[in-house]
């Protein structure tokens, strides 16, 4: 569940700023973001957010936004998984609308190449360094076989190095039953927030294509992967800084907003 709450915060902030738009259910007058390609059958944890919000509303009605709940829950999930902490900036407000099209366009696909990843982050005002370090969130969580099946098709296994081939063959066996089967993003320490993600990349064991391509990114990207694989303290420090930077992503000035009483619907 820790990875699910962290992912909710990411997928929220990447659409139109951190405004809890991802939590809105579809209505006759609103098509939300939950059925967008990057979110459908991927995002979980909505019930946990509902439970947190219900208790907050009992204690201090219409005070803590759903967007702030997502940001704080993401931080606490990382801490409880053994990762770093940071001071979450609060004061966000909740959107009264959502955008399926922006969710589809803005959230990086698991098949993205390095140039696409860099561009998606730059479009939001985030740097190449932010991209590499925030990708380290994939040290916890799972992904469906459908999100990395391209690594197993088209002769990819046959062309891989011997050590990589063993890893890919194990994934092929796992996914032989269904593309909906879940695999750990980090097979070595799946429930621990650590720098093993980068160690895995260097050994060819990044799960998603968009993870493994970082090794071949060259320049700043490759150097950062090497640095984080060697120095977990550096990874923790930079991850905390980049999470604060991402958490500052805000909707355009003048956007209508509120503090929702229920995170699934507007007031």
UniProtKB/TrEMBL annotation:
- Give binding positions for substrate: 108
Q: What PANTHER family does this protein map onto?
A: PEROXIDASE 40, PEROXIDASE 72-RELATED
Entry cofactors = heme b; Ca(2+)
State the organism of origin.
Ensete ventricosum (Abyssinian banana)
UniProt-annotated binding residues for Ca(2+) 1: 12, 15, 17, 19, 21, 33
InterPro entries annotated for this entry? Haem_peroxidase, Haem_peroxidase_sf, Peroxidase_pln, Peroxidases_AS, Peroxidases_heam-ligand_BS, Secretory_peroxidase
Keywords per UniProt:
Calcium, Disulfide bond, Heme, Hydrogen peroxide, Iron, Metal-binding, Oxidoreductase, Peroxidase, Pyrrolidone carboxylic acid
CDD domains named among the record's database cross-references? secretory_peroxidase
Q: Which reaction does it catalyse?
A: 2 a phenolic donor + H2O2 = 2 a phenolic radical donor + 2 H2O
Presence of keyword 4Fe-4S: no
Q: Where is the signal peptide, in residue numbers?
A: none
Q: What is this protein called?
A: Plant heme peroxidase family profile domain-containing protein
State the Gene Ontology terms under molecular function.
heme binding; lactoperoxidase activity; metal ion binding
Residues that coordinate or bind heme b: 138
- Gene3D superfamilies, from UniProt? 1.10.520.10, Peroxidase, domain 2
User: Which free-text remark accompanies the cofactor?
Assistant: Binds 1 heme b (iron(II)-protoporphyrin IX) group per subunit. Binds 2 calcium ions per subunit.
User: In which residues is Ca(2+) 2 bound?
Assistant: 139, 186, 189, 194
Question: One Pfam family for this entry, by name?
Answer: peroxidase
Which residues carry the site feature described as Transition state stabilizer? 7
Q: Which residues form the Plant heme peroxidase family profile domain?
A: 1-267
Q: List the disulfide bonds.
A: 13-18, 66-263, 145-175
Annotated active site residues, numbered on this chain, are 11 (proton acceptor)
**UniProt family annotation:** Belongs to the peroxidase family. Ascorbate peroxidase subfamily.
Which Gene Ontology BP annotations are present? Answer: hydrogen peroxide catabolic process; response to oxidative stress
> Would the keyword Iron be found if you checked this record's keyword annotation?
yes
